[in-house]
Design a protein that fits this description.
This protein has about 120 residues and is mainly β. It is about 0% helix and about 60% strand.
């Protein structure tokens, strides 16, 4: 089974920066896309940013110009550089990956990390 391990969350003041990392491991054949979602208490989980195998990226309007997603294909790792953080960015951030695996058969599936807390104080 594929595992996604996240790191880099923490507490920062408004205007500060954080860099999140997510490394995928397991019987990975290929990764089509990787991305970040976030969920604040009482709110729906939302897409923050995604990057596909060709390098194309998409961002939520609320983070455009402040966040940058990148990917190291050799390490099966995705990063999220978060600058100019705002209190409304406070949430649990989840790594997501669209992965083709080698098990009993070759299967394409969607995987999630356990989440990392990002807290931005005013």
């Amino acid at each position: 089974q594929v595992q996604l391990v996240e790191s880099g969350g923490g507490l920062v003041q408004a205007g500060g920066s954080l860099r999140l990392s997510c490394a995928a491991s397991g019987s990975i054949f290929s990764i089509n896309g990787m991305g970040w979602y976030r969920q604040a208490p009482g709110k729906q989980r939302e897409l923050v940013a995604v990057i596909i195998s060709g390098g194309r990226t998409n961002y939520a309007d609320s983070v455009k110009g402040r966040f940058t997603i990148s990917r190291d294909n050799a390490k099966n790792t995705v990063y999220l550089q978060m600058n100019s953080l705002k209190p409304e960015d406070t949430a649990v951030y989840y790594c997501n990956a669209d992965i083709t695996i080698l098990k009993n058969a070759i299967t394409r599936n969607d995987y999630w990390g356990q989440g990392t807390q990002v807290t931005v104080s005013s």
